[in-house]
Amino acid sequence: MSTAPVSRQTFDEVMVPNYAPAAFIPVSGKGSRLWDQSGKEYIDFACGIAVTSLGHLHPELTAVLHEQVDRLWHLSNTFTNEPALRLARRLTETTFAERVFFSNSGAEANEAALKLARRYAHDHFGGDKTKIVSCKQAFHGRTLFTVSVGGQPKYTEGFAPLPGDLTHIEFNNLTEAELAIDDNTCAVIVEPVQGEGGVTPATQAYLEKLRALCDQHNALLIFDEVQIGVGRSGQLFSYQGYGVTPDILTSAKALGNGMPIGAMLTTKKVAASFVVGTHGSTYGGNPLACAVADKVIELISQPELLEGVKARHQLLVEGLKRINDKYHAFTEVRGQGLLLGAQLAPSLKGKAKDFVNAAARHGLVVLVAGTDVVRFAPSLIIPEADLAEGLKRFEAVTAELVEKAAQPA
Fold this sequence. Notes:
Elements: H1 8-14, E1 26-30, E2 33-36, E3 41-44, H2 47-50, H3 59-69, H4 82-94, E4 99-103, H5 106-125, E5 131-135, H6 144-149, E6 166-169, H7 174-180, E7 185-190, E8 193-194, E9 200-201, H8 204-216, E10 220-224, H9 238-242, E11 248-251, E12 262-266, H10 268-271, H11 287-300, H12 303-327, E13 330-336, E14 339-344, H13 352-361, E15 364-365, E16 367-368, E17 373-376, H14 384-406
Helix pairs in contact: 3-11, 4-11, 12-14, 13-14
């Protein structure tokens, strides 16, 4: 076995080139800070794309994982296990759901949701009710089915033929929803906040209209809360803030705080269509992941933690506004809770990745949401001092790039 040191160059030598990772390699983390191979420190405003929402090496999560590691790692789905049952019970006690299916990722949770919707329609209304309606600029995963349902052509280019009977409509457009959703529709899938598509929240009227149209046409309403769920909105799940209840909800990312796990939540009536043998997952419901996720939900569902998300939201928004008042770099800051996007001004059009690269030089980790939006997803419990320091570093980034943009070509 090779013991040679590894570096960023090693990626180019041994990995499939479907990613373009940063020039530095993080090797450790604690709370809202990371350190790379050279010992440089970074404030983490990304959380592994909204995953480590309780920070790195949270002591209670670490303790739960260590305890489970010494007991049981894996069982096939010919058995059940205690951590999975405890997690499922906690999820049904804290949401609308009555039944839970566990997977390994958000894409798999969405795949399960979409398959269940078609199976439910087949069981109750026959084989012709197959249409799935989703939104342009949506993102639901990278499987062939979920990437086709997501309304971003750049992710499907070169993978045809794609699954059929999919209709894409403009997000937040009530008229298009009314025209698209009909008696042939088995499901409508929507992100309460479009993450990859620009950090754009759904309007109250839009989600209410989708709920009404699904009821009218006997279609299932699916909320993809893979990114905005598990406390990031300031509610345990975003649907609770809207007061609009879906038939199926998908979760992943922050659910395991870094342990790979996804979940599909639904009602007893809808779940009944997944009879034995219709769907499965070898690792879904893994005891290690479920033990950690159970503690995650226990901690994040506490009212004081969720109130803290709202308070930090205000601090982050106000900090970005102060920066923008000075540099006029953004046309809008939008989002929910601690998932925010800063829409770049026309003078910085297409420069979102430049912000990511410059931020790294200044010891800060941020994200993009397309080429024109800088995305922020810090820990839900980030200390206010770390939040302030991260904003200070981001101001330096903004000043640098605004000055560069103003220079003659």
